[in-house]
Amino acid sequence: MRTKGIVLLLILCASLVFSSSLLAAEPPRNEMLIADILTGKVGNPGNFNFWATWVGNDKGLQQLVIDPLWMADYVTGEMINVLAKENPIYNDDFTTMTVKLREGIYWNDGVPFTADDVVYTVELCMATPGFGYHTQFNQAIEKVYKTDDYTVVFELTQPNSRLHYQFLDRWGACRILPKHIFEQVDDVLSFQFNPPVGTGPYKLLDYDVAGYWFLYELREDWERTAVGQMYGKPAPKYVKFIHYGDASKKAMAMISHELDMADLTPESLEVVLSRNEYASGYYEDFPWAELLHPCVTGAAFNTLVPPFDNPEVRWALNLALDAKNLALTAYNGAVAFAPAYIPALLPYYEHYYERLLPYLEEYTLEVDGEEYKIFNSNLPFEMAEEAKSRGYNVPDTEEGIRIMFGYGWWKHSPDLAEKLLLKNGFTRGRDGKWLLPDGTPWKIEIVCLTAATNPSFKWAFAIANQWSAFGIDCEAIPTEIVESLTETGDYQVVGGQPAAEPFGAGIDLYRGLNVFHSKYWKPLGEKLVGHQTRWVNEEIDYFIDQMEQADYSDPKNIDLAIEVIKRLIDGQPGVSVASFPGFMGLDNYYWTNYPTGDNPYAVPWYHWPNLKFVLPFLQPTGRQ
Predict the structure, then answer these.
(1) Where would I find the beta strands (DSSP E) of 391-524?
(2) What is the largest CA-CA distance in the chain?
(3) Tell me, what's the pLDDT at 545?
(4) 202 contact partners, CB below 8 Å, separation of at least 6
(5) How far apart (Å, rounded) are the C-alpha atoms in residues 109 and 111?
(6) What is the C-alpha separation between 438 and 416, in angstroms, rounded?
(7) Contact, 86 vs 119, CB < 8 A?
(8) R_g (Cα) of the chain, nearest Å
(9) Contact partners, residue 20, CB within 8 Å, separation at least 6
(10) Residue of 212, 178, 209, 207 whose CA lies nearest to 193
(11) 337 - beta bridge partners?
(12) Binning pLDDT at 50, 70 and 90, where does residue 279 land?
């Protein structure tokens, strides 16, 4: 009887979780694209003001409703003109930037989009401490003004060839907000911006107050949007973003055709492919996932919190890890290693990793007067042999193997890690567990996203397991407020991104490196401006400043970036493991013509703001 009661209680709880999805009239399934919320259940579902704080930006807000001036596409290598009608125009010494805006664009409440919105967005950011881009704009912009309704001029405080990067979206940029809405608000930091008014092709129709789903409807005037002007009418009339739960729940939803696009684990994708004849991965065969992705993943240390403020401790924690087993545990071996705090991508292979490889192979650490070479450039070939032993097809050339698995990682060196810790006053207790220099037990908490398919979650648990085996009391802690914790520095280690994301196209790494400039440093407790590690090295400031004074296509940016990368490697502000391993599941039952490895016409990810440019190319299958 007690067992039956428990079962009934579990069923009731599960029904309560998803009952809210039944409260709204569900649109016809064959008119609706359904995608996963990659970052998980949204903790503040009614807040759409992502200029003020993290609001679960990938709940459809950045993909469907709000637009930037420009968008980067790492697949095509293009910079897409969105609200801007052309590329930025700089004067000869990079002290002014002129932006020409696209005409005929309207906010979804019928108000025309003009230069007034751009000027107001920038001025509001500059005038409001705590608002997004407040620090960056005040440091870079002297004045912003319009010369007509569709031309904006920025006068800069000093030469800067990349001011437009602040407005160039690829999962983060200063998007343009509606002046006529925000100018009526007394406190823009607490303003919920609900419903969101945007220039994108969709508008919010309904959402779950518990944060599990968000439903959007195509605007009747979709032709008055940038997407409509450039690519035509988006195919789905409705788009729903939903958090079903862990990978197994997402897999079951995709098998039953209730989820079209989702980030899965290797195991759950295998289940989907075996039980849904209409399903596919990014590739049809191993590695199935998109491995060459412009986001480096692993973990980030809070370098203002002891003992993570000590670079030798950070090195010890890296060397205590077995990269091969990390990859096998988290992603069944399908990863492209990225040890240099930049992603594994073809242009970065050519311009950076090829040049860095001799440096990495000769890289040494000195401990107690003895030098140790610590890089394993043979790791990609070890991974290839492991994959072959499991029956997978892998390239048979050195170039092909390096493209698939990267250029290597640090040797698993627990003995050297121990020497580094002992040198810095750490000891082991009688039980073999590590003690801090003050004699207290060393406990590490790795906070991470709750979505079990996300690298934040996957690497946090894999790393925690290995540090625990090394003798540290370590625990991975999924939380819905991870972004808030990193914003204020209230954490020790966070699973996710040890460095910022470059655009992924061309040679320029400025976007990924600029966040480490000391001018963006903030103490604990103050809202984050630079990278979440809060690590700075004043030597790199010079190289970043030099990049700002050179055109972003100038080859000398490669040399400047390599100097920054070498200092990142010395400092190890995180655990730079691999590019984002994207095990995407796609259901072709209702919709087809998704971007894939065999059809790479655009960024394939549904949580990226680029999704709006994919929707006009989706094709309905006609199935009911």
Answers:
(1) 409-410, 427-428, 434-435, 443-448, 473-478, 493-496
(2) 81
(3) 94
(4) 60, 64, 65, 216, 217, 218, 219, 234, 239, 612
(5) 6
(6) 22
(7) no
(8) 24
(9) 208, 209, 210, 212, 213
(10) 178
(11) 406, 578
(12) very high
Q: For residue 13, what pLDDT is reported?
A: 39
**What value does the mean pLDDT take over residues 236-247?**
96
Q: Comparing C-alpha atoms, which of 357, 381, 410 is closest to residue 577?
A: 410
The predicted model gives 354-377 an average pLDDT of 97
Q: State residue 588's pLDDT score.
A: 98
List C-alpha distances in Å: 162 to 95, 173, 347, 352, 544. 11, 13, 20, 21, 11
For helices 455-469 and 323-331, what crossing angle results, to 10°?
130
Round the average pLDDT of the chain to a whole number and report it. Answer: 93
Res 9: pLDDT: 33
Reading the block at residue 538, the tokens are 């004043």
Estimate the crossing angle of helix 398-405 against helix 379-389, to 10 degrees.
Answer: 90
d(CA 51, CA 117): 14
| Tokens, residue 96 | 């002014």
Q: With contact defined as beta carbons under 8 Å apart, do 622 and 94 qualify? A: no
The structure's pTM equals 0.82
pLDDT at 350 over 80: yes
Give DSSP secondary structure letters for 450-470: S-TTSHHHHHHHHHHHHHHHT
